[in-house]
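User: I'm curious whether this sequence folds into something compact or stays loose and floppy. Could you predict its structure so I can see for myself?
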Amino acid sequence: MRGIVAATALTLAVAGVSQAQAQDAAAGEKVFAVCKACHQIGENAKNGVGPELNGVIGRHSGSVAGYNYSAANKNSGLTWDEATFREYIKDPKAKVPGTKMVFAGLKDEKKIDNLIAFLKQFDASGKKQ
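Assistant: Here's the prediction. I'll summarize afterward.
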């Protein structure tokens, strides 16, 4: 019985390490460098060409105050959970036809994982969690 418990604990520990390695926020910050042309994040973030991205994971599309969204984005009914964001960032115009986001898309799964880890650090007020 102890052997089963130990093996289960080891399996869970390894799975936890694998998941932690799957998303790297520091590497995601480097990926975000491309996004900085249009978006800001952090305590002093403001809307620019694109909306600020504080608290983006978990928020409804088209909901940042003061940003002039396309009707397509505002009316998409999407909530930016990880799966939805992942689809969108791969090909924004395919996920939300009519979006004014001109980014061609990020295809590299590892970079997407890392970008999501970076974005998830920031709450709606821009504070790192």
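Summary: The chain has a mean pLDDT of 88. The chain has six helices and no strands.
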